[in-house]
């Protein structure tokens, strides 16, 4: 019943629009601050790796290994991805363009920050983003998705698999 309401109801679409624009504004302002402020991730990554130690680590060991062996050596790439990921997720959410893809990108960044031991507004943003993802197309109903999505192919034609004859 609630699933039907959030996915199809006009009032739900209006509430989702407010949530979507709020999240978009949050991502956009954060991303623009990083783009214009000389964003660097070395300190953040090093701090997150350090939080994996001690009796009650805030960062899980597997995530610290990823940060130490992949993210830290490629810190310029990760800084670029975070800055521009936040900007593009923000723009897309504000405009309601490819809303579900933008929401998925945003929630992945939220979880990466949470895995790195940073709480801040991430839990709140995760919770709000879940509503957008559950709502599907209704989350972008009052946005550009309303005009763009109907022109996209409904079904991707995958090549048929050959089956073995028995």
UniProtKB/TrEMBL annotation:
Primary localisation category: membrane
Transmembrane helix is among the record's keywords: yes
UniProtKB keywords: Membrane, Transmembrane, Transmembrane helix
Membrane association type: Multi-pass membrane protein
Listed Pfam families: DoxX (PF07681)
Regions crossing the membrane: 12-28, 87-113
Compartment(s): Membrane
Gene Ontology annotations for the cellular component aspect, listed alphabetically: membrane
Protein name: Thiosulfate dehydrogenase [quinone] large subunit
Source organism (scientific name): Halobacillus alkaliphilus
Organism lineage: Bacteria, Bacillati, Bacillota, Bacilli, Bacillales
């Amino acid at each position: 019943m609630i699933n039907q309401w959030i996915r199809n109801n006009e009032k739900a679409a209006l509430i989702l629009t407010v949530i979507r624009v709020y999240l978009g504004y949050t991502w956009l302002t954060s991303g623009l601050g990083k783009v214009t402020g000389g964003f660097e991730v070395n300190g953040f990554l090093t701090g997150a790796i350090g939080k994996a130690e001690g009796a009650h680590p805030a960062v899980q060991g597997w995530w610290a290994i990823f940060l130490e062996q992949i993210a830290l050596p490629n810190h310029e790439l990760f800084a670029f991805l975070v800055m521009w990921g936040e900007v593009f997720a923000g723009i897309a959410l504000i405009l309601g363009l490819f809303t579900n893809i933008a929401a998925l990108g945003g929630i992945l960044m939220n979880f990466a920050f949470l895995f790195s031991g940073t709480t801040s507004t991430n839990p709140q943003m995760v919770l709000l983003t879940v509503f957008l993802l559950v709502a599907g197309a209704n989350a972008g109903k009052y946005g550009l998705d309303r005009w763009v999505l109907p022109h996209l192919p409904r079904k991707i034609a995958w090549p048929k698999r050959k089956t073995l004859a028995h």
